[in-house]
Structure formats: C-alpha cells, structure tokens
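Morning run. Coffee first, then this:
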Amino acid sequence: MGFAQTADDYYQIALKALIKARESQQQGIANEKLWRTVISTAEMTLGKKDSNPAATLIIAEAYEALGLRTQAWKSWQYAWLETNDPYALENALRLGFELAEASYSANLIEAAEKYYQVLLELDTKNSRIYEGLAKIASKQSQWEQAENYWRIVLRLEPSNQEALSALAILQTSQASSQTNPTPVIKEAQPLQAVPASPSPSLESLYDSNAVAFYREGIALYEAGQAYDARLKFIRAVELEPEFKEAWVWVGRTRFEQNSIALAVQAFRRALALDPTNPNIQEQLAKAQARQ
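And here it is:
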C-alpha cells in the first residue's frame, strides 16, 4: 500500500481486499482486519484527486459486513448520492427500514420517526414509509396527521387493507367525538393500534428483565455494536424462551456474523412461536439458502 500514489492505485487495492474479504466471509470466517483494510483503502481513494465514487459502495458493504449497521446505512446513502446506483438506494432503504422498525418495536418512537423521515428523503413514493409514520403519529395521538399519512398510503397502494382499516377506525372515532364532544380518554385509546385493537406492550407479554435486555440489544445494534447486541438478545430468550421478537434478532445478528446454522435455529424458534409471520418466514428462507 505504501507505493500507491493515485486514486486508482488505492481503488485497485481496495478491490483486491474486498474480493479476499468476500471469499473469507463465504467460508464462514468474519475477518474484521481485512474488512477494515477495505474501508481504509477505499477512504484513501476518496481522499485523492479524481477519486472513483464507486469506492463509496465498497465502504458501505464493508461496514455492513462488520455489523456496523448505522455506519453502513449512512454509507449506503452517501453512495447513492455519489453514484446514483440503484443498488445503493436499495440497500439504504433496506437498512433504513430495519433500523426504523427495530426502533419502533422497542418503543423508541422518536428514533423510529427520524429513520422514517430520512427514508422519506430517499423515496417519496414508498408506501411502507408512510405506513410507519402513520403508526408513529397514532402512537403519539396525532390523529389528523395519522389520517393524512394513511391516505397517502392509499393513494400509492389503493388496496392496502391496513390503511383501509385504520382510516375506518379513525373516521368512526371522529363521528363518535362529534356526538360526544367531551370523550373520555379511555375511549380514544383503541385508536393507538392499527388496524384493530391496541397492541400489548412487550412488558405485558414477557418477563420485564428479558424485555430490558432486548431493548439494550436494540440500542447496541443501532450504535453499530452488533456482537454485543447479539449477547443481549440471547440473554432475553434465555430468560423468556417464548420471546419471538428477541429470537428474530438472535437469528438476524447470527446471520450477519456468519453463524448461519445457529441463525437458522433461531429463526425456526421464532417461526414456531408465530407460524404465519411472513417476515420470519422470509428471513428463515434466506438463512437456509446460505447453508
């Protein structure tokens, strides 16, 4: 590396390191040193005159391979801006949704909203973003805003059953409030759930200590500490074996760290607890395809 002079020299070194890192990962070996070499050489490329913007794609891939999800997400966004490569946008959206939905499920509502707002800057015609914002607005009792978001969902996806159901609930509530101008707060609570009834909190479903470990895991994961996050998720399922959300995250973090067989086991446990969940089915299939 010491003989490299130009941006292209560094880019070629980064590419060679990337190929080796990918080969190592395919063999089930997470070579952190090699992935960090990929990042450092690709960053040197960007620091040179006439740099190759494709280096941003390499950096994003490396961060994701290291389990540094937040950094990877930001890097995919930057790669999209620099290269206009649809692959970068696809990954920026994918990771953004994962982070937003993880925050929402952990009841980190403000964090989830920030993720969705950034996603909205990336894609203004994605109904999934407006669904997330609608649910957050409902959580915050911002009914008018929630209704606006659900209507956007329907404009983008007219047959969306969740949006239709949510709007029906909101309209019923509005009609009720006009009949009774001083509604009891308790009567409005069902609106916090979309589309049917209020979703129970994790604490009401599982051991409180297990939930605490789960939330710590989510926070660590968002901070880019995927390995430590996995340990928290494992503690959660040790305390609460039926904690399906935690099992999903055990599977996801194992998969991302190339413990494929263990990831499959975790996803199977989660699916056994929620057999019709399409998200778990998809993640299990993805993991099985890597075996």
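DSSP finds 16 helices and no strands in the chain. Good start to the day.
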